[in-house]
Design a protein that fits this description.
The complex is a heterodimer. By secondary structure, chain A is α/β, with parallel strands linked by helices. Chain A has a single domain, classed as 3-Layer(aba) Sandwich (Rossmann fold), CATH 3.40.50. Chain A is about 40% helix and about 20% strand. In chain A, strand 4 (about 80-85), helix 4 and strand 5 (about 100-105) form a beta-alpha-beta unit. The model of chain A has no long low-confidence stretch (mean pLDDT about 90). Chain B folds into three domains: about 1-160; about 165-295, Signal transduction histidine kinase, dimerisation/phosphotransfer (DHp) domain (Helix Hairpins), CATH 1.10.287; about 305-460, 2-Layer Sandwich (Heat Shock Protein 90), CATH 3.30.565.10. Chain B has helices spanning about 1-25, 35-50, 70-95, 105-130, 140-155, 160-180, 190-255, 265-295, 310-320, 325-330, 350-365, 410-415, 425-435; strands at about 55-60, 65-70, 305-310, 330-335, 345-350, 375-380, 385-390, 440-445, 450-460. In chain B, helix 1 (about 1-25) runs antiparallel to helix 2 (about 35-50). The mean pLDDT of chain B is about 85. The chains are: A alpha/beta, B alpha+beta. At the A-B interface, helix 1 of A face helix 7 of B.
Chain lengths: ~120, ~475
C-alpha cells in the first residue's frame, strides 16, 4: 500500500478528496493533516510516498512547509504535488525551484482525475 | 580672501547638509524644526568667524599659501567627523524602521556618502597637518564615488525623480542666465525687455514644473491602481476558486457515479455542501458588486430605500443571529444598550446598515481567541448614537492601521489567522457609515489584546 498525505486546512476539501481517493485509488492509503503547523512532524512520522500540499493556509503556508521539508534530510526527497486554488501567475517558477513533482489547480480538474493521476505518479 | 571665505562656508555646509540629506532619505521625512536650528547653530560659528582673523591668520605671499587658523581647522574637521558618525548612527538606529525593500538603496547611499565625507575631510585634514596640499585634491575623488553611487541609485532603483530634478535644474538655469544679464546691460529698454523675458520665463518654467509634477503624480496613481488590480486578481481568484472547486468536485463525483453505492445521508451531505458553497460564492460576488457600487466618489443611498430604522433593534437582531458563532468560541458575549437610545432611530438604508454591523460583529467574533470576550455597547452622544464593538482578538498591527479601510487590504496577522477573506468588508463598512450625514467609523487597537470599533450614526429627528 502506498501512502498519501493531504495537507489542507479546509475540512470540506479534505473530506471530498478522501472520499474520491477511497473510490478511485483503493491501493493508496489516504492520510490527512489539517494543521499546517503539525505538517512537518506528520510527514516525518508517516514518511508518505506522495504529498498533496495546499499552498494558501492559515498561519503557515504551503511554501513554508515546502521550505522546511527540503531542509530535512529524511523527508526532503518525498514527492510533493502543489495542490491549490491560487492563480499561479508568479509562483510557478518558485515551486519548480523547490522541486515539486507537479502543480495542480483544484478548479481545473476533478477529484477522480486527480486520484487517477496520483496512481500514475506512484506507478500503480 | 572672499573665495577663501566661501570655501570654508561651503565646506562646513557639506557636513550639515550631508547629514540632513541622509536623514530625509533614510527616514523619508523632514527633520524637526529644532534639529534644523541645531544644525544651523553648528554652522553658525563658521559663518560668524569667517570674516575675522580666526579664519585666516595671514597669507604667505612668497609661497602663495594661506596661513590657516588652527581653531577654524579643528572646528571644521570636527563637523566632518560628526557628520560621518551621525550618518552611520542614523543608519544603525533606524535600521529596523527601514522597509526591507528599501534597505539596499539606503545602504548604497550611505556607503557613497560616507566614502565622500571620509575622503573629503580626512585627506583635507591630513594635508593641513602635513602642510602638503598636493594630496588634498585626492579628496575630491570622494565626490566622484558619491556621484557614481547616486547615479547607480537613480538608474537602478529610480530613487530620485530625475525628470523633475532635470526640469527644475533647466528652469533655474534659464532664469539665472536671464537674470544675470542685469549685471551687463546698460540701457533701460534692454532692462525692460530682459525683465519682461525673466518674468515670462519664470512663469512658463513654473508651469512646466507643475505639469511635470502632475504627470509624476498621475504615474504614481496609475502604478498604485495597477498594484491594487493585481492584489484584487490574486485575492478574488483564490476566494472564488475555492467554493467553485468544491462545488465542481462534489458535482463531478455525483455525476460520475462515485456515490452510487453511498448511503443516502452521504449524498444529502454532498448536496448540502454544494448549496452552502454556492451561498458563499454568492456572498463573495455580492461583496465585490457592493464594493464597486460604493466605490463611487459621491455614493448616496437611493432616496426611496431610506427609512427610519430603530438602531438598537437592528443591532440586537444581528447580535442574536451571531450568538451561535460566539458560543462555538466560548466567548463572553454581551450587549449593552443605554436606556436613552432604545427608541431612537436612524435614517438609513436598512440592508446596507445591516451589512455594517454584521461585518464588524462577525470580525470581532472571528478574530477573538477562544474563551475571550466580545461586547457591543450602544450609547448616545449629543445628536449621534455611538456603537462600540470591543473584542479580545488579535488586534491590528501599528504599521497597518492606516490601511485597514483600504479596498482588498487585510492585515498580516488577520491573513495568518484566517487565510480566507476578500479584504472588502471594512472598505464597504466605512463607505456605508460615511454615507450617513456625520457618520464615522474608527478604532483603537492593541496587538494581541483586542480592538474596539466605534460607529457613529446620526439620530433621526422625531416626527
Amino acid at each position: 500500500m502506498k501512502k498519501l498525505l493531504y495537507i489542507d486546512d479546509d475540512q470540506e476539501q479534505l473530506d471530498l478528496y478522501k472520499m474520491s481517493y477511497a473510490i478511485n485509488s483503493p491501493q493508496i492509503e489516504f492520510f490527512i493533516e489539517r494543521d499546517p503547523a503539525q505538517a512537518i512532524a506528520r510527514i516525518k512520522e508517516l514518511k508518505p510516498d506522495i504529498i498533496l500540499l495546499d499552498l494558501v493556509m492559515t498561519e503557515i503556508s504551503g511554501f513554508d512547509v515546502l521550505f522546511a521539508m527540503r531542509k530535512e534530510a529524511d523527508i526532503k526527497n518525498i514527492k510533493v504535488v502543489a495542490f491549490t486554488n491560487s492563480a499561479l501567475t508568479n509562483v510557478t517558477g518558485e515551486l519548480n525551484k523547490l522541486g515539486v513533482t507537479e502543480i495542480w489547480e483544484k478548479i481545473k480538474g476533478t477529484p477522480k482525475g486527480f486520484a487517477l493521476r496520483t496512481n500514475e505518479l506512484l506507478g500503480l | 580672501m572672499t573665495a577663501w571665505s566661501m570655501f570654508w562656508i561651503t565646506n562646513g555646509m557639506i557636513a550639515t547638509l550631508s547629514f540632513y540629506f541622509a536623514y530625509v532619505f533614510i527616514l523619508k521625512k523632514d527633520i524637526t524644526f529644532s534639529t534644523k536650528i541645531l544644525l544651523f547653530l553648528i554652522q553658525l560659528p563658521i559663518l560668524l568667524l569667517t570674516p575675522t582673523t580666526l579664519n585666516l591668520l595671514g597669507f604667505d605671499l612668497i609661497n602663495c599659501e594661506a596661513i590657516e587658523s588652527p581653531f577654524f581647522l579643528y572646528y571644521y574637521y570636527t563637523m566632518g567627523a560628526l557628520a560621518i558618525i551621525g550618518i552611520l548612527s542614523l543608519l544603525i538606529i533606524s535600521w529596523r524602521k527601514i522597509d526591507k525593500s528599501f534597505r539596499k538603496e539606503v545602504i548604497l547611499l550611505v556607503i557613497g556618502l560616507e566614502a565622500f565625507l571620509i575622503l573629503f575631510y580626512f585627506l583635507s585634514g591630513i594635508s593641513s597637518y602635513l602642510d602638503n596640499y598636493s594630496i588634498e585634491f585626492y579628496g575630491l575623488f570622494g565626490k566622484l564615488i558619491f556621484i557614481v553611487f547616486l547615479a547607480y541609485l537613480i538608474v537602478k532603483f529610480e530613487v530620485f525623480n530625475i525628470k523633475l530634478l532635470a526640469t527644475q535644474a533647466l528652469v533655474w538655469a534659464s532664469v539665472i542666465l536671464i537674470g544675470s544679464q542685469f549685471f551687463f546691460i546698460q540701457t533701460n529698454i534692454n532692462r525692460i525687455l530682459t525683465g519682461f523675458t525673466l518674468v515670462l520665463s519664470s512663469f512658463v518654467g513654473w508651469m512646466i514644473i507643475l505639469s511635470v509634477k502632475k504627470e509624476i503624480r498621475q504615474r504614481k496613481e496609475i502604478e498604485h491602481l495597477l498594484k491594487i488590480k493585481s492584489e484584487f486578481i490574486d485575492i478574488v481568484s483564490h476566494q472564488l476558486r475555492t467554493p467553485v472547486s468544491v462545488i465542481k468536485g462534489m458535482a463531478s463525483m455525483l455525476k460520475e457515479g462515485d456515490l452510487d453505492n453511498a448511503p443516502k445521508e452521504q449524498k444529502d451531505q454532498f448536496v448540502a455542501g454544494i448549496y452552502e458553497k454556492s451561498e458563499k460564492l454568492a456572498d463573495i460576488l455580492n461583496d465585490i458588486l457592493k464594493a464597486a457600487e460604493l466605490d463611487m466618489d459621491n455614493f448616496a443611498f437611493t432616496p426611496a430605500s431610506i427609512k427610519s430604522v430603530n438602531l438598537s433593534q437592528l443591532v440586537k437582531g444581528i447580535f442574536g443571529d451571531l450568538t451561535s458563532l460566539a458560543q462555538a468560541k466560548k466567548l463572553n458575549y454581551q450587549i449593552k444598550i443605554s436606556p436613552d437610545i432604545i427608541n431612537l432611530n436612524v435614517m438609513t438604508d436598512e440592508s446596507f446598515l445591516k451589512h455594517v454591523f454584521q461585518n464588524v460583529t462577525d470580525n470581532a467574533i472571528k478574530y477573538s481567541k477562544e474563551g475571550g470576550s466580545m461586547t457591543v455597547d450602544l450609547g448616545k452622544e449629543r445628536d449621534f448614537i455611538i456603537c462600540k464593538i470591543t473584542d479580545s482578538g488579535i488586534g491590528i498591527p501599528e504599521d497597518q492601521k492606516d490601511r485597514l479601510f483600504e479596498k482588498f487590504f487585510r492585515a498580516k496577522n488577520a491573513v495568518d489567522a484566517h487565510a480566507y477573506g476578500t479584504g472588502l468588508g471594512l472598505f464597504i463598512t466605512k463607505k456605508i457609515v460615511e454615507a450617513h450625514p456625520g457618520g464615522k467609523i474608527w478604532f483603537d487597537s492593541v496587538v494581541n489584546k483586542g480592538t474596539t470599533f466605534y460607529i457613529k450614526l446620526p439620530i433621526a429627528k422625531q416626527a
